[in-house]
Amino acid sequence: MAEMSCQISSYEDEQPRRKQKLETTSCSASAVSAKSDPAPEDDDDLLSELDELASDEEEEYQRQVDESDGFDVDYFPHPHGGLVPNKMKNEYSPFYTYLYSKLGLHCYNLHKGTNLELTRIHKYITNKGYYPPAYYITLDAVDTRNNNTPCTFQTCLVEYPTPEWGYFSVKTELSRLKVPNGPRAATSDDDVCIERQWRDEAIDDFYKGKMPNWLTKDELAAATDKGQYYELQESDLLGNEWLLLYAEFAFHVWWRGHGGLPSFLPLKIKKVIVQTLESGEDPPHLKLKSYNAIFYISFRASNGDPSGITVDYHAMIRKTMDGKPGHIGLEVQCWACKASSE
Fold first, then answer.
1. How many angstroms separate the CA atoms of 280 and 223, rounded?
2. Distance CA 69, CA 74 (A)
3. pLDDT score recorded for residue 41
4. CATH of the structural domain 70-197, one choice from 3.10.450, 2.60.40, 3.90.550, 3.90.79
5. Which residue stretches does the UniProt record annotate as biased composition, category Polar residues (predicted)?
6. Nearest-CA neighbor of 315 among 270, 280, 263?
7. What is the pLDDT of residues 178-217, one digit of tens each?
């Protein structure tokens, strides 16, 4: 058994981040070795014990996934894919994790009437080897409408790149205050699965399919008469800072893969037009509170531009919500053009 222990130790050395679960086995091996020399074990016996070890790890991995809904999982080697923890390099890196964290908070604020603001990202977990990519993010926030009350927050998002249509899509599946880890009730897993599933039938077909074209001046004038469009005033921008988040998503989509985008923030919004299916019976500014809407946003980077020249960006962001408290979806399309002389 001494030889076998050495072989297992060597296997562990090749996988330094595996959990160490051999203390009991090593003690038993020492006791047996003191009594007599065991018969040599062939490769099949060794593989069987290693397979059993992998099975133990799989059981522990699954327990952590089940008891945290995927938000608190240690590192395990996944030859065929699974949830893998990651660390933030800084508050903005990777940039998409910063955006996804703020989107989860934005979703919660829309449903709950709170004003949670991001203060720190603890960690994020990705589903390595699976499509579509999913992100489980744990973060700290404060509610500025409630004496800056701190909280720990969890959001799970799924990313849907759509290169055939030329735009980017992301949906939240969970947006909630942190739920303590531990064994779930018998129906809890089913409840979480149901909570994560989107009710696509609750969203009007007007907000599905390919994104619309960018508005021409004539189209905007004609549609405004019907009450479907509203051009935001400066006062609207002051009360709805989340519009900057939508612009940041577009900036990220255009420069996807660029590592230095945070250095060009904040963005400067030049114009926002919001479109809804509903006519203008209600005050126009209430379109901002619609569950489903299309935003036409023009903006610039305020601290230079990754291109090295001054650029105007035009973005269309289609926001959809199916009525479930943890759900919001953004579909984003962006263009860049030479800056106007304004």
1. 11
2. 13
3. 44
4. 3.10.450
5. 1-10, 23-33
6. 270
7. 999 988 776 655 688 899 999 999 999 999 998 988 888 7
